[in-house]
Amino acid sequence: MRYLVVGLGNIGQRRRALLGERCVATADPFNSAADYRTVQDCPVDDYDAAVLAIPDDGKIELATYLLEQGKHVLVEKPLPLPDRATAERLQQLARARDLALYTAFNHRFEPMLVAFKEQLDAGAIGEVYHGRLFYGNGTVLNVAGTWRDQGLGVISDGPDQKANTDDDIKSW
Questions:
Q1: Residue 63: other Cβ atoms inside 10 A
Q2: Strand ranges, E, within the chain
């Protein structure tokens, strides 16, 4: 399988390294080391699957485009879906073309997170109105002082995230 890695930030560079020769192209409008500035610039016949390691605002649009092009899609967490209809539309696109659409979230079964969830479910903590958690897996320097260190932080990597400017988000 040949992969296109979209987004050459920290995670995108890790995925490219992990894929090795299977990574046949990269796309990133801000990193000059990328082969292409946009996904659409990369010929669709050059790859079979894509890894989306980009800000959340562009994930649904790019996942839709890639599925329509017949490509498998791995979305680095999270994939924030605005409504059930969007989720069903993406699911239908993938199933109709026999494609994989998967969101990578590899910490949900970490023992400390499972214990935390059990405590919440048991009511031992009480009703949580706000929380701020730091999960130390050796990447704190990739969080502290970045857009992930604002709003909900790494809990969602989500809607509160910011690229360098609003124009950066639109560029994806």
A1: 23
A2: 3-6, 23-27, 49-52, 72-76, 101-104
Q: Phi and psi of 87, rounded to 5°?
A: -60, -45
Contact 97, 64 (CB under 8 A): no
Amino acid at 92: Q
pTM over 0.85: no
- CB contact at 8 A, 75 and 101: yes
Cα–Cα distance between 79 and 58 in angstroms, integer? 10
pLDDT tens readout for residues 115-153:
888 998 999 988 888 776 666 656 666 667 776 666 655
Residue matched to tokens 């050459």? 8
Q: Per DSSP, what are the bridge partners of residue 49?
A: 3, 72
